Amino acid sequence: MNLALWIVAGLLAAVFVFAGANKLFIPYEKLAKAPGGGWVNNFSPGFVKALGTVEILGAIGLIVPAALDIVPVLAPLAAVGLATIMVGAAIVTSRRHERAHAVLNLAYLALAVFVAIGRFGPESFS
């Protein structure tokens, strides 16, 4: 179970670093024109950059505290935070009738919940 949690946390971290970096470094206008990027038009450029920053910090929080054994309780807390972001993302994409993106967001939500439950419960680091 511990190995599965590490693998899922690593995959989630990679996804969120990539997604966050895109939000931070790709211009707002270009993000809005990208496939599946229409949601950007519902938010300000500052919000999109802040969201990208939070996603990268969440990805770091999934791995670094546990790997370095420095306040490892931050790993499941990061998973809860990323799950919360995915709830919002699923709602936004669902309201925009982008079902495929909503399903993908729900899949990421499920993975984040798996990590949070696993790390708070049977495979905690304490």
TrEMBL record:
Gene Ontology annotations for the cellular component aspect, listed alphabetically: membrane
Keyword DNA damage belongs to the record: no
Principal subcellular localisation of the protein: membrane
Name of the molecule in the record: DoxX-like protein
Pfam families: DoxX_2 (PF13564)
Species name: Kribbella steppae
Transmembrane segments: 6-26, 47-68, 74-93, 102-121
Cell compartment(s), UniProt: Membrane
Domain of life per record: Bacteria
Membrane topology qualifier: Multi-pass membrane protein
